[in-house]
Amino acid sequence: MTNSTAERARLEQTLLALEHAAASRLKQARGQSLVTGPDTEAIRHHLQTGYDFAEAIPTATLVSDVLAMLTRWDLDSTHPRYFGLFNPPALPVTVIADALVAMLNPQVGTRTHAPAANEIEQHVLRHLAERIGFSADECAAHFTSGGQEANATAMATALAHHFPSVPDSGVRTLDGQPRLYVSEHAHHSLGKAAKFTGLGAQAVREVPALATGAMDVAALEARITADRGAGDLPFLVVATAGTTGIGSIDPLGALAELAAREHLWLHVDAAWGGGALMSDKLRVYLDGIERADSVTWDAHKWLDVPMGAGMLFYQRAASTGAVFRVSTGYVPEFEGDGSEPYLETFQWSRRFIGLKLFMALASLSTDGYARLVEHQCAVAEELRARLREEGWQIVNDTPLPLVCFTHEGIGGDPEAIQLLVEALQARGQVWVSRVLMPDGQAAVRASITSYATDGNDLQVLLDELRACTATTEQPP
Fold it and tell me: pTM of the prediction?
């Protein structure tokens, strides 16, 4: 056997082993505790005594020890009973995809080096653009490191669209303060983006929400009118399709009408909630998103691929050139069809992000993805019903798989809810978090993050809730 043949055989064995490990991961995880507790001193001691980098460590030993460290000391957010942030387990085929990308390491920043990788990404993005309701022939899209980059890029693009002098001369050339508008429950990445782009945090207007958590369109319109009257320069409205805290969806259709009437850019942050677009049944809850100028959608939140895999979609293909176009003397010129990624995005050198989503779509099909997201919504609905049966109160209203709840014996007292959450986490069988509701009251927050979560996992959550509330000073 030649060296190259032996190397290919080892690679095939490695990929098969990766697929097997990924497929068995959830089965193994179910019987394990989610939480071991932070032990920084133990971690540092292990690293300091075992890794002085003076001598080489055999690969098998190294892999085994790293896996043990990550399993022992990290929170297992891939567990079916992890009801926390949007960190789903990766589909087995996507683990193989990331391994292939690491092995081949294509430079996706330019088509001259990676025409196949770029076409694969654009093929996936055009398909998903159609799920949004954009024209695949007229829109533009690219992968990002995540929602933070996507939201910041959309903000910079909207600024350049409304104020063409800004990309070259900066905001100091404007005769007023640019203003952008977000719900009070919008993601905090937007505030960070305003600082990052140089607009400043004070450029962001937080618009009050209704009792449901959705943005108050009348309050937004009044705020825009007042700001224009004061000499400010409104340019951007950001709607959220699935807030992180309670899963509320802003009124996308009404906001699209207002943005069109006021000549403002409409960006929809659907980083998590965009997963609903995969289902014809759930798509109705995001009606109006097709009228947005740009959309953020994270594949690593609800499409079950490894981080990071953000996406940014533009309704019009010519949106980004003014912000990112440069001229170099060292990048080979691409003479084929299609734009150069480094001229249309903030990133330059970039990982082949889109392969994992391409392989997931190919292995599942769009209908298969629809079944996954619909299953998680059905599990959330089952959780709501079972909580009510046991006397718990559901305090958020969303069709998405996120359940916020409390009990009259606990109420919405933030300290009491925090104690309950900490008790649940300490037992290690489930992981939930505390959330502050629009009215300032607190609740327990449970997100159905894993596609493997089922009724048995819900029963464990209910049993744990019962055990923890039985020991509180104010039992239900």
Answer: 0.90
Residue 22 CA to residue 19 CA, distance in Å, equals 5
Per-residue pLDDT of 25-34, as tens digits, reads 656 666 677 7
What is the 8-class DSSP label of residue 306? P
* Contact between 227 and 205 (Cβ < 8 Å): yes
Q: Terminus-to-terminus CA distance in the chain, angstroms?
A: 70
For residue 247 the two structure tokens come to 């899963």
pLDDT digits (tens, 9 = 90+) for 293-305: 999 999 999 999 9
DSSP state of 176: S
Chain centroid, CA 319 distance in Å: 23
Alpha carbons within 13 angstroms on the beta-carbon side of residue 128 total: 31
Domains, the chain, ranges and CATH? 37-73 (no CATH), 102-364 (3.40.640.10)
Tell the residue number behind the tokens 């942030």, with chain if given. 85
pLDDT by residue (tens digit) across 262-281?
Answer: 999 999 999 999 999 999 99
- The CA-atom distances, in angstroms, between 426 and each of 34, 327, 411, 419, 423 are 10, 55, 21, 10, 5
